[in-house]
Amino acid sequence: MSGRTASLSPPAGAMPPVRHPEAPAPGELLGSHYDQCFGCGGAQPHGLHLEARAGEGVSLTAEFRVKAAHQGAPGLAHGGVLATALDETLGSLNWLLRVIAVTGRLETDFVRPVPVDTVLHLDAHVVAVHGRKIYSSATGRIGGPDGPVAVRATALFIEVKVDHFISHGRDAEIKAALADPDQQRVARAFEVNP
Ligand SMILES: CCCCCCCC(=O)SCCNC(=O)CCNC(=O)[C@H](O)C(C)(C)COP(=O)(O)OP(=O)(O)OC[C@H]1O[C@@H](n2cnc3c(N)ncnc32)[C@H](O)[C@@H]1OP(=O)(O)O
Q1: How far is the CA of 101 from the centre of ligand 1 (A)?
Q2: Which of 56, 83, 93, 128 has the fewest beta carbons closer than 10 A?
Q3: Which of ligand 1's atoms lies nearest the C-alpha of 4?
Q4: Mean pLDDT in the chain?
Q5: CB of 83 shorter than 6 A to ligand 1
Q6: How far is CA 90 from CA 2, 115, 122, 127, 156, in A?
Q7: Residue among 36, 103, 158 whose CB has most ligand 1 atoms within 8 A, to mutate
Q8: Which residue, among 151, 61, 62, 69, has the nearest Cα to 114 in the 3D structure?
Q9: What pLDDT, in 10s, does the model give residues 78-116?
Q10: With a 6 A CB cut-off, is 4 part of the ligand 1 pocket?
Q11: ipTM above 0.95, yes or no
Q12: Would you call 103 helix, strand, or coil by DSSP?
């Protein structure tokens, strides 16, 4: 046993999240942070191509259209793909904090089946921050942004240093990402404050 608490509820002493002064303005598209990202990257033919837009405070909305490549059962989205959409949406929140963080824990409720070709409308916000721990939650609706809830998630992200990626990622991709002449893209690939 690690002795870790499994709770996704912020502990006593957790603080409200603080939006970074240079976070994208509400309504602005965040854009992909890395073109090879399965969640948002344009270079992944079967990826989710999820598009996230900054909201007020430390919140955002995102959309993802379920494609045939995302099926689990015939005509229905795979649950793991839906969890990926939630993970990506929740992970994008950290860009509004300008904190580099990875998912430590993700708890998902699958409320309704999501058919292929459906647009999943996601909204997410950071609930609280406690030291390196970022507590957040997300909801995915179908049939429109105010439609019925199909999926929900709560998550705990843990702040890391950029070395997390450099020391654990495969060499070829790390080198390629660092060699990009566009410093803004390098920063975003690792979600580092440029
Ligand atoms: C825009 C970007 C979108 C990206 C979206 C996608 C995001 C992702 O999917 S990231 C990829 C998936 N995640 C990973 O690969 C992470 C793999 N895990 C790890 O690398 C490590 O376990 C890591 C970094 C999370 C924690 O390790 P480490 O830095 O040594 O932290 P550690 O000291 O053990 O823990 C720090 C705190 O977090 C807590 N914690 C760590 N992991 C967990 C966990 N899984 N569950 C609950 N609590 C946890 C610890 O209890 C500790 O709490 P406290 O400070 O109160 O004692």
Answers
A1: 8
A2: 56
A3: 51
A4: 94
A5: no
A6: 25, 22, 10, 11, 9
A7: 158
A8: 151
A9: 999 999 999 999 999 999 999 999 999 999 999 999 999
A10: yes
A11: yes
A12: strand
